[in-house]
Amino acid sequence: MHLFSTIRHVAVAFVAAFSLGALSACGPSSPDQSAYIFSTSTPDISMDGAPNVDVRIMRDGVQIADAVIFETRFDMEPEGMEAMTATVTAQGSPDPGTYRFAVKPTMAGRWRLSLGAKIQGEADTVRGSVIVMAR
């Protein structure tokens, strides 16, 4: 009786482990970050006034028009000064698939605008960045 009980417990444990593995394989996966391209039509910005940076997010040659951008960071990482940050404020979309951000660079040089977005059909956040030159 004891041997039968032990075999049954091992069999139940095996089935449970197999089921969990199969379920995790079928669950939502992380987005392929390399499938998304972040680009800008404003690679040069002025130190004067209130410059804007326009960003497009694309996948397979198609602009993503319904992304919800909830993480923003504007820093001088391309110049080796990641700790130097400046203000960035979302300005909405001038047209579908383009996301506009007002930035305030504090000095001339290359700046990185990093974004985190929720995109329909992706379980996790999609992240990307663009580099702009402040002059």
Give the SSE layout.
Blueprint: H1 2-26, E1 36-40, E2 44-45, E3 52-59, E4 62-63, E5 68-76, E6 81-92, E7 98-104, E8 109-118, E9 126-134
Parallel strand pairs: 2-9
Antiparallel strand pairs: 1-3, 3-4, 3-7, 5-6, 5-8, 6-7, 8-9
| Total individual domains | 1
- Quaternary state of this entry equals single chain
The CATH topology, please? Immunoglobulin-like
Low-pLDDT residue intervals, each spanning 5 or more residues: 3-29
The description of the largest β-sheet is: 9 strands, mixed
Labels describing this entry:
about 140 residues; alpha+beta; nine-stranded mixed beta sheet; 9 strands; disordered N terminus; 1 helix; Immunoglobulin-like
Summarize the structure.
By secondary structure, the chain is an alpha+beta fold. Helix content is 19%, strand content 47%.
What does the model show?
This protein has 135 residues and is α+β, with helices and mostly antiparallel strands. The protein has one domain (33-134): Domain of unknown function DUF4426 (Immunoglobulin-like, Sandwich). It is 19% helix and 47% strand. The protein is built from one helix and nine strands, in the order H-E-E-E-E-E-E-E-E-E. It has one helix spanning 2-26, and strands spanning 36-40, 44-45, 52-59, 62-63, 68-76, 81-92, 98-104, 109-118, 126-134. Strands 1, 2, 3, 4, 5, 6, 7, 8 and 9 form a nine-stranded mixed beta sheet that branches. The longest helix is centred in the N-terminal third of the chain and has 25 residues, at 2-26. The termini are far apart. The model is unreliable at 3-29 (pLDDT under 50).
